[in-house]
Amino acid sequence: VSLSADARLSNAGARDFALPEDEAKAAWEADRQHLLHPWTNFASFKERGSFLVSGARGVHVYDTTGRQYLDGMAGLWCVNLGYGREDIVEAIADQARRMPYFTPFVDVGSLPAADLAKEIARIAPGDLNHVFFTCGGSTANDSAVRLIHFYHALRGKKDKRRLLVQMDSYHGSTYLTHSMSGRHTARSPLLNFETEMVQTLRSPNTYRRPEGMDEAGFLDLLISEMEERILSLGADTIAAFFAEPLMGAGGVIVPPRGYHARVQGLCRKYDILYVSDEVVTGFGRLGHFFASAEHFGLEPDIIISAKGITSGYQPLGAVIYSDRMQAVLNAAPEEAWFTNGFTYSGHPVVCAAALATIRAMEAEDICGHVRENGPKFETALKSLLDIDIVGDVRGSHFMMCVEAVADQKTKELFAPKADVGHRIADHAHELGLIARSIGNLIVLSPPLIFTEDHIAETAATLREAITRTRADLK
Ligand code: PLP
Question: What Pfam families has UniProt attached to this entry (predicted)?
Fold first, then answer.
């Protein structure tokens, strides 16, 4: 395609990312005819095709006509430092020139992977001083399960294999991690992902708690149900509990206050490992490198990271685990091999991108910026509650969600065919804001460099998009 030569420059903009109309059309057709997208709905794809983005700078993306959009999703919860960062681009190019790849297997490695492992041990909480690298969040969760089973087997607890997960959670798209994802819509009616190994608990969705129950009562219910499940299955069959500290793709669900501490108490009592999936919440989104300890007071046995770890510039996942687990692994007998291996585990170029991301985050105090501006984002979006089809606005810092309802009092939903989430997202798109619809929800997870002006623009645009949707539906 013939993008302007200036499109490579850090100050590139609308004009540089515009394509001649025939080329734009050809690219759109190529996508439609030949590319299977992750999470495709074939019925709507056939009709609408794709929205193709040809360039991005700062907090904006540009379509093939050169039209600018404010990216309220940071790509897919990941481009935390924004687009066009020369320091990260340079780190990637520099490492690719030095050595693009070498095997990470058995006892061979590369400098960036070793450096990054040390950096992660430094910024991770507690005794989480060890890391296994993968190519993204799904493979990190998948690898964590293998590591956990290996760990329990080494302790002579081979039957500890079951995984406790929550309805509404999202842990990935490999066969196993998809089955661990309790998101209602994650389960295609045409495929059966049920597995006896995965046990799904009630969603900790405070907004949708049983009618007439207060938050404290709801918390008691969640905890007692979890303990009953552990006892009925047998604690000696349960390996780990997986949860996002604040659920993302399942609808930015904030559990009741005190939930994490009590779940952790149960995990300790019954020798169940606590895995905190921080693929979204980590790397600054809630104002800390990791939200588990600093935001939620948790001491997980494992943290899963991905997305923001490279600010989305390269694909990387990480299983970050404890000294306690490492002590067990170190005592493994000679015949025991941990045979989980990806060709691109600890890829040097990818690790260089992560190292540059961590450097930039610290040099620019990105976490401090989020702690200061995140609450302003929350307040700006909560002002939308005066629109009568907004039932709930929830989340924390730069991880928020607006839930549309037909009736604020009863929380009744619009009929699915009203497609309310899509309608709002489509109006926002027309108005120049990228927001993501999930069912009746609109999710926002912007680049962490959002300023007060971006926050105000997002809230104003979303207000107009919801108002237009209301007019469509009422
Ligand atoms: N875990 C969580 C909490 C996620 O939000 C995601 C992706 O959205 C994943 C895991 C899967 O990560 P990936 O898409 O990088 O495989």
Answer: Aminotran_3
